[in-house]
Amino acid sequence: MSYDFQQYSALIENIYEFSQSKSNWYKPLQELRDCFSANYVTLILKPTFENEEEELGLMIAIGSGISAEKKVQYLPYRYHITPFNNQRPDTVFTVDDLMDEEAWIQSTYRKYWCANIGVYHVMSADISTIDGGLVKLRITRPESQDNFSDEDKALCQLLITHLKRALDIHHQLDRSNSIGSMYNEAISRLSIATVQIDESGRILEQNVFASELLLQEDGLKVQGGKLTAHYPNDNRELKQLIADSFKMVSESDRPMLPEAMSIARPSGEVNLGVVVEVIPSPAWQKGTGQGKAVVYIRDSVAKSQASSHVAKKIFGLTSAETALTLQLANGLSLEEAAEVLNIRRNTARAHLRSIFSKTGVRRQTELVRILLNSVAPLACKETDINVGP
């Protein structure tokens, strides 16, 4: 096998490029296929145990039998039929290491699962992952080609270290992104808009709640791609606040308290509350002009996003009592809530007495406080946001 340094470098680059991608399997698998002159390269992962008799995994495959349009094929994989199970992790092996050629030729697995797609020579490794799982790598050739050599196995063994590390990075980034998404959703449920900006105030990212708020252009808006306040005085103060936040962080080695201000609204509604917090950067990146900050925006008059299902459970309320509680949390009086819910005032009063009894409070203000301070807003779903007609 002839494989030069430049090809090896490109292969390693694609392996680590995959680690930062959600699902870009094609490049590293294709590089492996070219490297070993293989007809197929597959990764087998995510085993699920539906019952005691059948163990299914997901097989990600590229190769000569897959259409150019698809490039990558995703197939179920049955663990119990393969003779390659229970091998030493992170160690390359071939069919020759497990059985002689005659046993392989006569094996049911080769006859029914390999012969019909031109698979004869197999080089494998079970790569252990950071979460305790195994990702099974399979590299194959047809019978018409030479078997995998000791040189092939040695090169594959070198690559296992990089594949293992790339898979672990991929797993950690995926987990980090999932946690980040959960935090973003939780912040949105608390009616907090978040906007990520650079040092010039240019918007880099924003959550759904921020998008809705900025579209209203009631106090804050997007102008020239930057976060901008409606009134000139507020806008100057916002720019200064952002500049000062970055400056204080760059000049201090200690965590800085977030800076805050109030933004007036043309509608006359209560001012928006704004907090700017610079995202910490490694020391070696300071002063590069690539800093980022998160702007948190709170709309005090926004409707509560509390989950009716969760509020009902944690306070032991009926559906009608929960609906009334959420309307009160949105700032309506008892009479206004009764009208929105299309119930009589006396019925609303009866519900309120029962709610007070179950929650242990005596005033509407206390009821609103315990609801908004509960976990109910963190568990909202889209169907729970708008309660009532």
Automatic annotation (TrEMBL):
Residue span, HTH luxR-type domain: 314-371
A molecular-function term among this protein's GO annotations: DNA binding
Domain of life (superkingdom): Bacteria
Transmembrane segments: none
Single GO biological process annotation from the record: regulation of DNA-templated transcription
Protein name in the entry: Helix-turn-helix transcriptional regulator
Organism: Vibrio sinensis
Lineage start: Bacteria, Pseudomonadati, Pseudomonadota, Gammaproteobacteria, Vibrionales
